[in-house]
Inverse folding.
């Protein structure tokens, strides 16, 4: 009974104390809420995407192994099905064609995929979103992928034109569809998806077979594995079976482009979901620790008195830890609510990139509970040291009047006797110097605010650097024209004579599998001419790397994935033509920006392939005035499989991916600003509560508000100034950390920050300090002089 | 003697009439002062005596411009303090009033000299800080920080700080409240000397009846009202006090 009454009383005290410091409590809760919001937003999206993906892959019977080949007879499907571990096989015809779409001058790429004339595909089900299925009797009817239709405003009943096997064909869209293979639809060879310029179309098997001379044959196969099957074994066996038919190397689901991108995105989301909130939480714990240490210092006499009255140290410790827990709980609840709202909004953005039949947002209880538990733990960690120190006060302390704090002349004054700073300045300096540890902690707290802002803003620079790197250093061509099949080197002249072409440079890309022991990667090996000036290999520092006469030049990430270093030999399995397998030394690894790239000299590659001077694409620069005429002519060239345009790619990138990135950056910056403000405001409030007695005394002596504000705000100004450079330093570290974590097979970004970014973060924190100063100043104006002087503490 | 001369035509510094102060705290109201009349004349030494809670501090705070009455009239010479705004009260405190508190309220980061200079820096015709400290017998402790001074010494620094601006009135709220007898006497001696040598009108709050013997007049407060005014025919010196 007694303890119950006592606890109730303490709880009442808790509420009143919190109410008295509500501004500060709110600021700390906001910092925690920011961390929780990020956590909930990222991880609920991760969770939603992952569940959706798993459900969709299972329901649509997404295949486990994929392979494309030149042409194999239909009966080979039986042989494939007989591979041990293979549960189901689906063969089909897949072809890329050049499309003409009304309202778009530049050419687009269409991928035509066959679906059985009767019944649904056995694997990789097509989900009909709108319209109807294809009429087996109508060879020109197609289903089209949803993003492509949306990008062009196409609906069932509309038509597109395609150059199929050298002939113009009108394809009538009768339905809009989705497929697990194209959740993330990206053109082969591109880095960013472009919905306008890449569409997937499903056609009758008979119609497509006829168009591409594939009657009774197939050029693409997907297989599902049974339980316990060995994926590498199936891949190897499939390769062996398909080799005579021009197999281009089977890949497991994990390397299927859409699945691979989705997986990378999910991994990144999960990582960010931990890393960013972890930083925010760390800052929150720190701020809480500082605030509580200072608040408890002011309660020293009370604590001693309560102990003298017989309260146990444990009871008091728990009482003060509850301060932190109440604040954290408030922050967590607000954060979960904000995170749920923001998460639901984010998922609509993911819906733009990733197409599932249903991608619905779901905030799982687990994520919410983790966020709440995390913030409570963080708060308790931040509080525990402060509380432990505070409750150690011996009860006898309560009986003694507190001796005035010990001060001495500041270093500045000791160094120079002639220096006579104003009394206010002297007070500020001596205060800072008397408790250097405390000043340092406040400075570090504000520096954290600078750091989170700096990192948030720096991501804009990082994205800019990526764009700059990719679109002005690496790809200097305006367009790349890819041929249906490799052609002799003189094909470059056909392209050079197209209208508007200023400069042209040959390229040869060939699908290969690079193997080092058990590790292998299937990718496009690119051959570039000596002294290439349009398409170049560029390292992360923006320097062009000349290709050595012999050997492979690999992205560092690829070297790491394959476990090879310069001088090591790689087995290069060429997945085209006569399909030779060669051993080629690695000449160098390039620390570059984009995931997995392999380059070598064009002439060397020709020798390797045993085909002389063949090229597969031409990079070129265009006269802007004659660009449309170029498009018109190139679109109808039968030998051209596709045209990649830098302008379009860049614009698309800016519009879609960059927009999405900028949104997350913007949100990060908003939260960083909340943190910055929370930290700075807190420091100011803490100083105010520590100094209010002194300042009130001065007011009684006749000092004006402006004069006493100067003393308090002067201290805040000094701390803020010191925090600016420190914050930039900490931010640099955070940035490197996040970037290192961000690196995956798609990008390897560098942490770069423009001077203007540092300046902005400094400016925002200074502004936060100024606003905090003003708010605190308002409190100074309402300082209750009588009350402050009435009691000793 | 002094009391007679007071009555015989010295100018009043403070004239308070019918001062009421009501504190409202939610539903509860506390009437700290219930219609107090009070005068303080030039050069006078008045002791405000009364039990704790009788309204002494409230009255002194109102006189000093730290607080405003709920109703009634408070004149400082011919200035009406009840209508002054915060800025005017700040200037009033700065120019005319010296405060001494029970808990000294020195600035711990400033030395004794600097604590006094704090005030001399902001007023028109101050004495030199050294002079003020000498007056309270601390001419030799100029460079000590509050932490290096005893309680009595700190309180004397506070007195020096209060008088350095040559105020017309010195308001002291239990200046010896946290001191032992012998140090208390040192502090009272300082007040006595200031009153005598500078002619500063002084009001001292205490609940210690022995101190009343030092005063020209003793005003007794009880329960928010003036319970009695008594003029001393003979003023005791601080040294003679016993408690
Ligand atoms: N800020 C306040 N709020 C409410 N009541 C107050 C306040 N200040 C003083 N009082 C009340 O006014 C009365 C007089 O207080 P005070 O002038 O401090 O007494 P004294 O100084 O004589 O001990 C007391 O009953 C006290 O409780
Ligand atoms: Mg009092």
């Amino acid at each position: 009974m007694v303890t119950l009454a006592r606890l109730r009383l303490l709880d009442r005290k808790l509420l009143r104390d919190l109410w008295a410091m509500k501004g500060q409590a709110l600021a700390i809760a906001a910092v925690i809420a920011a961390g929780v919001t990020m956590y909930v937003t990222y991880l609920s999206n991760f969770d939603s995407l992952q569940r959706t993906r798993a459900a969709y892959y299972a329901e649509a019977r997404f295949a486990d192994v994929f392979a494309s080949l030149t042409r194999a007879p239909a009966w080979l499907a039986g042989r494939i099905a007989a591979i041990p571990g293979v549960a189901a096989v689906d063969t089909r015809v897949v072809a890329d064609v050049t499309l003409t779409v009304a309202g778009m001058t530049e050419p687009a790429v269409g991928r035509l995929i066959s679906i059985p004339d009767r019944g649904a595909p056995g694997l990789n089900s097509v989900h009909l979103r709108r319209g109807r299925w294809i009429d087996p009797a109508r060879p020109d009817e197609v289903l089209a992928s949803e993003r492509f239709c949306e990008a062009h405003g196409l609906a069932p009943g509309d038509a597109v034109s395609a150059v199929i096997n050298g002939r113009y064909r009108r394809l009538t869209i009768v339905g809009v569809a989705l497929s697990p293979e194209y959740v993330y639809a990206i053109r082969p060879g591109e880095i960013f998806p472009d919905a306008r310029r890449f569409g997937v179309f499903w056609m009758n098997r008979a119609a497509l077979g006829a168009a591409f001379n594939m009657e009774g044959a197939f050029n693409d196969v997907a297989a599902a594995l049974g339980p316990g099957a060995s994926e590498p074994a199936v891949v190897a066996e499939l390769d062996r079976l398909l080799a005579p038919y021009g197999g281009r190397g089977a890949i497991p689901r994990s390397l299927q482009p859409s699945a691979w991108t989705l997986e990378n995105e999910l991994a990144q989301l999960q990582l960010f979901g931990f890393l960013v909130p972890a930083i925010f939480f760390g800052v929150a714990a720190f701020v809480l620790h500082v605030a509580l240490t200072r608040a408890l210092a002011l309660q020293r006499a009370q604590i001693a008195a309560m102990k003298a009255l017989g309260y146990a140290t444990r009871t008091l410790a728990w009482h003060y830890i509850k301060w932190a827990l109440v604040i954290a709980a408030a922050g967590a609840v607000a954060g979960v609510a904000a995170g749920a709202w923001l998460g639901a909004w984010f998922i609509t953005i993911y819906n733009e990139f990733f197409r599932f039949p249903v991608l619905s947002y779901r905030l799982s209880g687990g994520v919410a509970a983790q966020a709440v538990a995390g913030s409570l733990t963080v708060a308790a960690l931040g509080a525990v040291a402060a509380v432990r120190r505070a409750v150690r006060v011996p009860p006898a302390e309560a009986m003694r009047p507190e001796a005035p704090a010990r001060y001495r002349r500041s270093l500045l004054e000791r160094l120079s006797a002639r220096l006579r700073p104003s009394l206010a300045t002297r007070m500020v300096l001596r205060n800072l110097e008397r408790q250097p540890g405390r000043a340092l902690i406040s400075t570090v707290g504000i520096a954290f605010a600078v750091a989170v802002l700096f990192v948030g803003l720096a991501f804009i620079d990082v994205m800019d650097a990526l764009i700059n790197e990719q679109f002005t250093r690496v790809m200097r061509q305006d367009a790349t024209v890819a041929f249906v099949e490799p052609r002799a080197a003189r094909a470059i002249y056909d392209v050079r004579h197209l209208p508007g072409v200023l400069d042209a440079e040959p390229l040869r890309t060939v699908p290969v599998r690079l193997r080092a022991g058990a590790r292998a990667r299937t990718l496009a090996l690119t051959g570039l001419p000596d002294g290439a000036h349009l398409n170049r290999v560029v390292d992360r520092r923006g320097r062009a790397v000349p290709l050595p006469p012999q050997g492979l030049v690999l992205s560092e990430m690829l070297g790491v994935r394959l476990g090879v270093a310069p001088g090591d030999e790689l087995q290069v399995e060429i997945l085209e033509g006569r399909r030779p397998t060669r051993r080629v030394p690695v000449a160098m690894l390039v620390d570059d920006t984009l995931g997995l790239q392999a380059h070598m000299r064009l002439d060397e590659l020709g020798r390797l392939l045993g085909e002389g001077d063949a090229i597969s694409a031409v990079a070129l620069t265009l006269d802007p005035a004659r660009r449309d005429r170029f498009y018109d002519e190139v679109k109808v060239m039968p030998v051209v499989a596709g045209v990649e345009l830098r302008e379009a790619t860049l614009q698309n990138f800016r519009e879609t991916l960059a927009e999405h990135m900028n949104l997350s950056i913007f949100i990060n910056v908003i939260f960083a600003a909340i943190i910055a403000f929370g930290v700075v405001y807190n420091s100011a409030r803490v100083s105010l509560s520590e100094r209010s007695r002194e300042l009130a005394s001065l007011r009684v002596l006749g000092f004006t508000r402006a004069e006493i504000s100067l003393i308090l705000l002067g201290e805040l100004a000094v701390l803020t100034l010191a925090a600016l450079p420190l914050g930039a330093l900490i931010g640099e570290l955070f940035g490197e950390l996040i970037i290192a974590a961000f690196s995956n097979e798609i990008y390897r970004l560098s942490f770069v920050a423009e001077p203007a970014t540092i300046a902005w973060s400094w400016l925002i924190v200074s502004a936060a300090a100024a606003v905090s100063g003003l708010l605190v100043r308002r409190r100074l104006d309402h300082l209750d002089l009588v009350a402050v002087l009435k009691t000793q503490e | 003697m002094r009391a007679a001369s007071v009555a015989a035509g010295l100018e009043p510094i403070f004239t308070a009439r019918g001062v009421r102060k009501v504190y409202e705290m939610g539903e509860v109201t506390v009437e700290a002062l219930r219609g107090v009349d009070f005068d303080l004349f030039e050069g006078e030494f008045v002791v405000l005596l009364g039990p704790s809670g009788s309204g002494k501090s409230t009255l002194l705070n109102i006189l000093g411009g730290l607080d405003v009455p709920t109703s009634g009239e408070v004149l400082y010479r011919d200035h009406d303090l009840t209508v002054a705004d915060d800025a005017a009260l700040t200037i009033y405190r700065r120019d005319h009033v010296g405060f001494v508190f029970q808990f000294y309220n020195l600035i711990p980061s400033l030395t004794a000299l600097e604590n006094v200079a704090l005030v001399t820096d902001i007023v028109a015709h101050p004495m030199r800080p050294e002079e003020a400290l000498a007056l309270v017998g601390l001419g030799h402790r100029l460079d000590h920080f509050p932490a290096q001074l005893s309680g009595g010494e700190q309180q004397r620094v506070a007195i020096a700080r209060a008088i350095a601006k040559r105020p017309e009135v010195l308001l002291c709220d239990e200046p010896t409240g946290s001191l032992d007898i012998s140090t208390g006497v040192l502090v009272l001696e300082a007040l006595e000397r200031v009153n005598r040598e500078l002619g500063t009108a002084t009001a001292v709050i205490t609940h210690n009846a022995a101190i009343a013997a030092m005063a020209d007049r003793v005003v007794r407060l009880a329960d928010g009202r003036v319970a009695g005014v008594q003029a001393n025919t003979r003023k005791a010196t601080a040294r003679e006090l016993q408690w």
